[in-house]
Write a structure and sequence with these properties.
single chain; 113 residues; alpha+beta; 6 helices; globular; General stress protein
Length: 113
């Protein structure tokens, strides 16, 4: 499933290879690398994909200091939903995407700024 709006685009992919391909496609269509984010349920997997594709991790800049600090005390699922919402998606969308991440999939998000 992917959602497109005037601001954000999200795509769930099966693995890191597909995530890297999607990130490259988004770059070719005009999204800037600093506006493309990757999320996986496993933080190490997220980091590996980010390194391989020159994408970004959702951080303080996107979430704000309060939510970033709160994530230190949240479960990984709560943290992921918070990050997805911080990129412009609704709670319902965040819940859907987090469930996909639970299944081992990877989420690529691109934001137009």
């Amino acid at each position: 499933m992917s959602i497109e709006s005037t601001k954000s685009y999200a795509k769930v992919v099966q693995n890191g290879v597909q995530a890297v391909e999607t990130i490259r496609e988004l770059g070719a269509t005009g999204y800037l690398a600093e506006n493309i984010y990757v999320l996986a349920h496993d933080q190490d997997r997220t980091d590996r994909i980010i390194d391989a594709a020159d994408a970004q991790e959702v951080g303080i800049k996107e979430e704000g200091i309060f939510h970033s600090l709160a994530n230190l005390f949240r479960s990984r699922g709560d943290e992921l939903r918070s990050k997805i919402v911080s990129l412009g998606f609704t709670e319902t969308e965040a819940e859907f995407y987090e469930k996909e991440l639970d299944l081992g999939k990877v989420l690529v998000i691109a934001v137009r700024k």
